[in-house]
C-alpha cells in the first residue's frame, strides 16, 4: 500500500480516554477501542469552528473530489466545519497538486501553515474513489488526528489499517469510529490564533509555502 504521511510538530502529553465500539467487518466481534493521546497531535486547523479551504490552480482538476470529501466530513461531523473560499488570504487550508512529494506519498497534510499537497503522479492514476479516499484521509489530519497506521499497539494498528480512514483503508465511507475520533481530536487539540497562523503562512521559506508560491 502507499503510505500517507503527516508533517506535524508532535508535542502532546494530553490524556483522556473515551471508550467506543469499532464497527467490525467480523459480524460477531465488535471490539471496544479506547481513544488515546497517541491518536492526536497538539493543534487543529479550525478558526472560529471552521476551516476555510482554498483550491490552488494546480489542484483545480480535483475540485469535485475535494468538495465531495469536505462534504462527507461535514455530514459525518454534523456541522459545516469545512467551507470553501475563493480567497487565499481568507483560507486556513490550501490544496495544491504537486510532483514534489516523495514518490511513496499520495498526499501530505501540513498543519502549521495549512497545506494539503496531493501527489499528482498518484492522483492522476487513481480513480475517483481512490482520489476521494486520499483527500478524506488528509482532511482528517486538519482536525488534529494522527495516522493510525503508525499506532504503537500492533494488534490495534492492524485493525485500524483495515477499518479506519486514518489507518489508510482507502475508504470514502466515514464510519462512526472515524467521525467520533475526529470530533474527539478536535476537542483535544487547539486552534491557532490569527497571529500564530499567519506567522507560518507568511513564512515563504517553509517548504510548503515555497510549493504554494511556485518556488518548488
Ligand atoms: Zn496521514
Automatic annotation (TrEMBL):
This is Snapalysin. Residues 1-21 form the signal peptide. Keywords: Signal. The keyword Signal applies. It comes from the Bacteria. It comes from Lentilactobacillus kisonensis DSM 19906 = JCM 15041. InterPro entries: MetalloPept_cat_dom_sf (IPR024079). One of its GO terms (molecular function) is metallopeptidase activity.
Amino acid at each position: 500500500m502507499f503510505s500517507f504521511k503527516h508533517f506535524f510538530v508532535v508535542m502532546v502529553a494530553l490524556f483522556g480516554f473515551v471508550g467506543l465500539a469499532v464497527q467490525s467487518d467480523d459480524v460477531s466481534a465488535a471490539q471496544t477501542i479506547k481513544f488515546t493521546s497517541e491518536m492526536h497531535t497538539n493543534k487543529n486547523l479550525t478558526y472560529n469552528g471552521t476551516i476555510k479551504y482554498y483550491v490552488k490552480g494546480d489542484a483545480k482538476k480535483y475540485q469535485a473530489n475535494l468538495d465531495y470529501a469536505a462534504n462527507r466530513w461535514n455530514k459525518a461531523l454534523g456541522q459545516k466545519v469545512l467551507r470553501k473560499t475563493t480567497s487565499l488570504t481568507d483560507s486556513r487550508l490550501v490544496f495544491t497538486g504537486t510532483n514534489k512529494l516523495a514518490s511513496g506519498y499520495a498526499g501530505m497534510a501540513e498543519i502549521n501553515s495549512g497545506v494539503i499537497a496531493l501527489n499528482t503522479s498518484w492522483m492522476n492514476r487513481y480513480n475517483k474513489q481512490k482520489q476521494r479516499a486520499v483527500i478524506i484521509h488528509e482532511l482528517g489530519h486538519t482536525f488534529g488526528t494522527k495516522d493510525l497506521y503508525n499506532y504503537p499497539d500492533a494488534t490495534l494498528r492492524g485493525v485500524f489499517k483495515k477499518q479506519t480512514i486514518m489507518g489508510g483503508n482507502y475508504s470514502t465511507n466515514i464510519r462512526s469510529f472515524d467521525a467520533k475520533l475526529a470530533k474527539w481530536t478536535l476537542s483535544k487539540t487547539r486552534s491557532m490564533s490569527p497571529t500564530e497562523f499567519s506567522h507560518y503562512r507568511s513564512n515563504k521559506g517553509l517548504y510548503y509555502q515555497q510549493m504554494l508560491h511556485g518556488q518548488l
